[in-house]
Amino acid sequence: MPDSIPESTLPYPPVHTDKKFVILSDWDGTITTFDSNDYMTDNLGFGKDKRREGNLEILAGRVTFRDAFREMLESVVASGHTFEECKQVLHDNIKLDPGFKDFYTWCKTPDIPVIIVSSGMAPLIRAVLSNLLGEEASNEIEIIANDVNVQPDGKWEIKFRHPTSGFGHDKSRAILPYRNLPNPPILFFFGDGVSDISAAKHADLLFVKSKPGGDNDLAAYCKREGIRHVLFEDFQEALPLVKSIVEGKKTIEQVVADSSSK
């Protein structure tokens, strides 16, 4: 590997090379009930209205996710909130999807790895995950995410995993290497928003979290691009669908067809 190429810009090597199934999931708004970066922006930064304007600009292709996301987080820092303060705010306010704990517990029985692939920042994710799921599970779950640079005065900025990519963190780079394995696994991906666009086309089955009464940018993108997907409200609803495929009771095509008919 040439020394001039940062490791973080390369495809993430597949860790689970002998598994039949691998689950990759977005963190914010998917495993949690609310996106932590949205929460910070809405409550500590420039607010929800401007954030939604940025999301719509991303969907329209007029700005990159990386640049809109950086602007969101910069608004939080500009308002005087330190990284430690933000970590505490998220610790106190972000909740776990009500079905995720049972979903994760089931995945351990058939030995299906669960990998968090996030456009958020790993230190924040780890802190909230350990609070919500416990220290042991937090240490077990692999997290592929961006990082953060924190200054001595408490000011901070996101450190993108793929800074030259318009995604900031191109989630496809955590998925595509599994395709090159001699016996590639079936890949499930769970997501909910514009940060998951880079992953949407590359899973064997994409689960899109629905948000009744809210915005569903990933579903809108999938419909526009013709990407097959299954809507789910929480992991309690997703669990029997994944189980049916893992246990050979249904094919992916049958699960997608059943979901489309609802």
TrEMBL record:
GO MF term set: phosphatase activity
Keywords carried by this UniProt record: Hydrolase
Protein name, entry field: Phosphoserine phosphatase
Family matches, as NCBIfam families: DKMTPPase-SF (TIGR01489), HAD-SF-IB (TIGR01488)
Family annotation (InterPro entries): HAD-like_hydrolase_phosphatase, HAD-like_sf, HAD_hydro_PyrdxlP_Pase-like, HAD_sf
